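Lab channel / #folding
Pinned by the channel admin:
"Please post every new chain as: sequence first, then the structure tokens as a reply. Keep commentary short and put observations after the output so the thread stays searchable."

First post following the new format, from NK:
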Amino acid sequence: MCNQDLHIHTVFSVGDGVIVPQQTLELISEINHAKIIGISDHFEYIGAVNFKDYRKRVSSFGFKVGIEVDGKNYVREAAGLDFDYYIYHCWDAKNDYKGIDSLLSTGKPVIIAHPYMTDTKLSRIPTECYLEINNRYIFRYDWYSYLKDFTDKFKFVLSSDAHQPHWLNQNAARYVADQMGISETILFGNEAASEEVA
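Reply from TO:
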């Protein structure tokens, strides 16, 4: 069982073509692959209009209520809602880097999602943010070269980035973290601390 998985999508992300109809909160609860589970559907599909229903449904399963924000366009609206944490796509653009400050001002954890995929310049990211290593994209990039100069500068969160039930694991992410000597940071619960990846 994983310690924590905060990057999981569900059928709430209705416009995401990768989501399958089986990716429901009920099934994720039954699979129960992590001690701490967070759901972070895409903000562009939830928005402020559906926020209350989303929060109520996700929290009814005992899951943390997160959201994935794709760059600057949704930052202001997302920052004004009561999420437990933010998964953020910081594309390599001036206003996307500025968007981080708005999310950090909420006092909630900000996780920079698969930064290698968005071409994020890690030297421009505030160290209060957490960097994500997830299963979905990590082997599409030279992860060692990309992360090697930053392993002591950031705390890291491991995730699945699951859009489908069989993606609910962190095997690849955990392998990369182990190879680089990166400790996993647990953000919620009594176990909230950095732990060595087993």
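NK: The longest strand covers residues 34-42.
TO: also worth noting, Residues 94-104 form the longest helix (11 residues).
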